[in-house]
Amino acid sequence: MTAPRAGRARRETVAATQAAQAALAAEHAAVYGYGIVGGRVDDTRAGEAREAHDAHRARRDAMSRAVRALGAEPEAAAAAYALPFPVADGEAAVRLAAELERRLTAVYADLVRAATGSLRAEAAAGLREAAVRAVRWSGGSVAFPGLADRV
Fold it and tell me: Is the pLDDT of residue 151 over 50?
């Protein structure tokens, strides 16, 4: 590999690692957030909250493996996370779930941009799943999930 190619490959690996760490951090926050959501939503949405919680735990574990595969140490979860607003009732919990998913679409869009191969496919799947859950929780959608906040 020539020096310019090696430098570019190194920069791409660093960018992919940073984006994977960001996705991992967002999944840690989502797992924490769905613990709050699950305790506040009514019975009609409790199953949906449990499914999302389980999905985010699986994605968190996948992102942890991806970070390791990139040669880095996965960042650990924080003991607690600051919520974007008070979550005192079911209505606020539904808004929190939608916000968690919206934030995940953004970090997965960044990972799609930075990654290649199977990690890029994994990131695209994460983006799609978060976008679908965001629509279910919020009742509305955007044309380009993960990119809407950047224009």
Answer: no
